[in-house]
Amino acid sequence: MALNLEDYYVLLHPALAIVIGFPMLGLIVRLAWQTRIRRLKIASGERNTIPASSGSEHLRLGRWFSSVVVGLSLVGLGNSIFSTMVLKGGFSKEPLRYILLSFMFLATIVSLILLYQAKAKLWRGIFATLTGMGVILLGSQPEVFRRTDEWYISHYYYGIILTMLMIFSVAIVPDIYQDRKNRWRNVHIILNTIALALFIAQAFLGARDLLEIPLSWQETFIGKCDFTHKVCPK
Ligand code: HEM
Ligand code: HEM
């Protein structure tokens, strides 16, 4: 086998995205479309054959999906952070930072759980902000490869934006249902149509990153390559 244990760990995040994330996205989009067509047909008095459950099913899967996306980002970020901590001797150099980061992972997960429980607008706002801040703080660590000079094709920036959009979707659910004028519904449709496009792009950007990451035992050799002129030593 050409892979070492640490290389297998890199595969965990892409595999989870492919097996759990993207199939769920397909179901959610289909249910979203049905929800919309059903609502418009009923509003215009047309005959409707779409089941009434499409909206609540979209919501039920959507709530799970948001956790899956936050989880995927945490696994992706955790990969960079904890591999430096464990494999490159980071813990002995900066123990305090890694202990704080471990708490940050836990705090982000707890904030997300509390966001699901919160009913009042204020608490939904607070826990959504805390969850989002947790992901951003973890993403700002020096170990994370951000591709900032090419932010428009960066798997990191797309991932962070998608995570924020999914947290926001959970936070505004009661507003979508309470708003008679459909303003929150329209906000949701616009933002999550953008999210859908970003999710599709994210699959390409992630696959590209996977192609660019060398296997652990090839790293020192690949590191000698000139990435600007795209040549490696003979
Ligand atoms: C990329 C993913 C998503 C897309 C493309 C999407 C899109 C849509 C669309 C088109 C509708 C129908 C709006 C209409 O009635 O015209 C809708 C409804 C809704 N969405 Fe999403 N959505 C996504 C994810 C989510 C998530 C993650 C949540 C919650 C956590 C969520 C919660 C809702 C709710 C509560 C409704 C109203 C359903 C009803 O009328 O019963 N959506 N969404
Ligand atoms: C729901 C979709 C996805 C989200 C929200 C997401 C999010 C993230 C985030 C936030 C990171 C950490 C930042 C970074 O290192 O760039 C990351 C890393 C990564 N992602 Fe994704 N990702 C998704 C799907 C995918 C897919 C489909 C693949 C590959 C087929 C992939 C491959 C990778 C790779 C290779 C890394 C680097 C891990 C490392 O540094 O060891 N991602 N992802």
Question: Helix and strand layout, with pairings?
Answer:
Elements: H1 5-43, H2 53-87, H3 90-93, H4 95-117, H5 121-139, H6 155-171, H7 173-178, H8 183-212, H9 219-222
Helix pairs in contact: 1-2, 1-8, 2-4, 2-6, 4-5, 5-6, 6-8
| Associated small molecules | protoporphyrin IX containing FE
- Count the helices. How many? 9
Q: What percentage of the residues does DSSP assign to strands (E)?
A: under 5%
Structural class: mainly alpha
Main beta sheet strand tally, sense and closure: none
Number of strands: 0
Task: Please give the radius of gyration in angstroms.
Answer: 21 Å
Briefly characterize the structure.
This protein is mainly alpha-helical and 234 residues long. The protein contains 9 helices and no strands. The structure holds protoporphyrin IX containing FE (HEM) (2 copies).
Description:
- By secondary structure, the chain is mostly helical.
- The chain has a domain of 158 residues.
- Helix content is 76%, strand content 0%.
- Helix 4 packs antiparallel against helix 5.
- The structure holds protoporphyrin IX containing FE (2 copies).
- The site of one protoporphyrin IX containing FE has 27 residues, from helix 1, helix 2, helix 6 and helix 8.
Brief descriptors of the model:
234 residues, mainly alpha, 9 helices, 0% strand, binds protoporphyrin IX containing FE
